[in-house]
Design brief:
This protein has 146 residues and is of the alpha/beta class. It has 4 helices and 5 strands; from the N terminus they run E-E-E-H-E-H-E-H-H.
Length: 146
């Protein structure tokens, strides 16, 4: 079963997908958004990718505040979750993504990427980290076959 990880931003959506066994996450692409409030093209592209990779569920980054409260970005993720579920008919799991972008940035620093390259790839790497965190939690719980 393949799972798609998504990192929703105001200008981009990072996309990652699991291998068929649900063990590892790989970055797929970054969807550029024309406007934060217009989602039709973004949802259409995600739906196309989900069909192409035969995805059975989504893991969407849930940007809670550091004090565990729900802010504006998390509320936008909740609204996006509902729209994505309605459009695809697939379940969407909200996954705590606190510090994921920081971890992605650190990984790119270690790889020696330039500032321009980092901007280009940070959302896709963040999506991979979100998805990998979810996959690892399934393996840890002994539920990798769900």
């Amino acid at each position: 079963m393949r799972i798609m990880g998504l990192d929703l931003g105001s200008k981009t959506v990072g996309v990652a997908v699991s291998d068929p066994l649900g063990i590892t996450a790989q970055g797929v692409e970054i969807i550029r958004r024309e406007s934060e409030d217009k989602l039709r093209r973004t949802l259409a592209r995600i739906e196309t990718l989900a069909k192409e990779y035969q995805v059975e569920k989504f893991v969407l980054g849930y940007p809670k505040n550091m004090n565990n409260t729900i802010g504006e970005r998390a509320q936008k993720s909740e609204a996006f979750k509902e729209k994505l579920e309605r459009r695809t008919g697939l379940p969407v799991i909200l996954w705590d993504e606190r510090l994921t972008t920081v971890a992605a940035d650190n990984a790119m620093d270690e790889a020696g990427l330039s500032r321009e390259k980092k901007k280009e790839y940070v959302d896709m790497i963040a999506a991979s980290l979100i998805l990998q965190g979810y996959l690892d939690s399934l393996a840890f719980a002994g539920k990798a076959d769900e």
